[in-house]
Design a protein that fits this description.
alpha+beta, 2 domains, four-stranded antiparallel β-sheet, 4 strands
Length: about 130
Amino acid sequence: MDKSKIAFGVSRSSSWDIPFYADYDIQCGCGAKDHGIFVEFEHDGYAVQLIFHKEVSWVCHWQTRGWWGSLRKRISGALTVLLKGRLDFEESFMLCNVEHIDSFIDALEEGKYRLLSYAEKLKDEKPIG
């Protein structure tokens, strides 16, 4: 296999040399380690799948003043989950310079190449008839 071009803010997660699987950790451009994304490429014998995983958290201390504001926000969130059955929120992820964006694109291309070459081998190995 060719040497990986991935360099900045993107790293290969596993060192397994499984032909139908590749995974990458992508850091957020803000530099925080706690809200990156995890990207998996999988091939199940029929289709190539690209799966993005992101851990999202709800912080009750964000933009509150004192313990009372924090407690009120916690109770509000708990009641929302109890009555609505879910919390709706979003979290941003940023690729913040050309090198970071290029590394993300390189990871996508590398994962795609690995799985397409595996799919081609599968197609060649399948018996006809």
